[in-house]
């Protein structure tokens, strides 16, 4: 089952700063969460993220998973090249009731990553083969990516941002779900809104939404 996790403000701990650790950090950076990386060595890219204060880093050589007890993470990703250590980290994380993942152990992981097409951090399209072939998931992603990037236009991204605004605006203004739904579709199909979005004028499009709402209430 593919779900879109809400990590807002949560702490995610990544253990291991190699290729897999970096991949996971890059994915997490598209989310609004706190990232702590623990590893005995790191790449230049990871060091740049630390300098830019995008992630926290603790340089540590781990022998077991006891370090986790100091933290209250929402999720723990074990990406070292030590299978036994990764397993211990997953077991400790699970005992603390947080989501656990090991890059080398799909059997014990609570979830797997898909191969993701990320369009402006606004639309995400994931391909998964359910662990049967990660290489094919990547290949299909690459095959599909240019098509999705053509089909999903800049205007669609603006429409999503405007819908987000409009959904919040109607929440306590229109009392029933059918009314809210009708209004949101009317915003999407309004010629004036469409023109403002074509012009890239989100601020004016938001003003138009408020006018449309004002006409209703
Ligand atoms: C999609 C992607 C997302 C990501 O990692 O973020 C991802 N793996 C990717 C690439 C990739 N991974 C591997 C290869 C080498 C070729 C091959 O094995 O196929 C390649 C290809 C390459 O690198 O080119 C090796 C590998 N993968 C896993 C193991 C452990 C094991 O199976 O035991 C081993 C070591 C096996 C060994 O030692 O032999 C396990 C998993 N990898 C998954 C996801 C989950 C299932 C997703 C699915 O089936 O759809 C799952 C179950 C858990 C997880 O890690 O989430 C990412 C593409 C990102 C992109 O789009 O660029
Ligand atoms: N899920 C996937 O898609 C996928 C893909 C490729 C590889 N893998 C698996 O993921 C694992 C990691 O691969 P990688 O390429 O990132 O390896 P890597 O060697 O690049 O990185 C391992 C990292 O773990 C750190 N580390 C190792 N032991 C440690 C310890 N005791 N304490 C602290 N830090 C420690 C190292 O310093 C290094 O930064 C491998 O077991 C590999 O089989 C998974």
Describe the structure.
Pathway: Porphyrin-containing compound metabolism; siroheme biosynthesis; sirohydrochlorin from precorrin-2: step 1/1. There is one protein chain. Helices cover 47% and strands 15% of the residues. By secondary structure, the chain is α/β, with parallel strands linked by helices. It folds into three domains: 1-113, 3-Layer(aba) Sandwich (Rossmann fold); 114-151; 154-216. The strands form two sheets. The chain has a five-stranded parallel beta sheet, sandwiched between helices. Helix 5 (154-170) packs antiparallel against helix 6, helix 5 (154-170) runs parallel beside helix 8 (202-216) and helix 7 runs antiparallel to helix 8 (202-216). The longest helix has 18 residues, at 134-151. The structure holds ligand PQ2 and nicotinamide-adenine-dinucleotide. Residues 23, 103-104, 106, 112-115, 128-135, 137-138, 141 line the site of ligand PQ2. The site of nicotinamide-adenine-dinucleotide has 20 residues, from helix 1.
Entry summary:
InterPro entries: Met8-like, NAD(P)-bd_dom_sf, Sirohaem_synthase_central, Sirohaem_synthase_N. With 217 residues, this protein is an alpha/beta fold.
Q: Give, in order, the helices and strands.
A: EHEHEEHEEEHHHHH
**Portion in helices:** 40-55%
| Strands ordered across the widest β-sheet | 3-2-1-4-5
Shape estimate: elongated
Give the uncertain stretches in residue-range form: none
The proportion of strand residues reads 15-25%
Organism: Nitrosotalea devaniterrae
Keywords: NAD, Oxidoreductase, Porphyrin biosynthesis
Enzyme class: oxidoreductase
EC number: 1.3.1.76
